User: What shape does this take?
Amino acid sequence: MTTAVCPGKRARVRKPQTSKKDHARKRRYHARKPWVRHVCWANRRCTSDDPRWRAHYLDRGITCDVTAAQAEFMWHRDGAAKMVRPSLDREKSELNYTLSNCRFMEFDVNSRRAWDPKVDADEARAAVASGAEEFPAPEFT
Assistant: This one.
């Protein structure tokens, strides 16, 4: 949709506005499937040309290979529904987002791991296991 501003000037191109119904539909969807939001954010970080993420993900070749079904499995396996603020974490930051390398853990512990050497692997595991249940890993294709 274009709108002529005045003769001799370029026409503005307006993006279609997202309706309130669409926002409400998206909120309901993410309320039912909160793990999808985390996968979307991880995928955005890996594919974005944004300078905040480019050096950490795109330039290093990090990809997001986690599907929504795998994220749902991790969500229930790690007990993320019981966490205050769950965060999708890569156990080894040099590897891609995969089912075997990812886990949900508390955001505050995950964010401290980068700069606080006292946050060790045991504390990270305890943050994951706070509400985790035993689940056999399903076969994903």
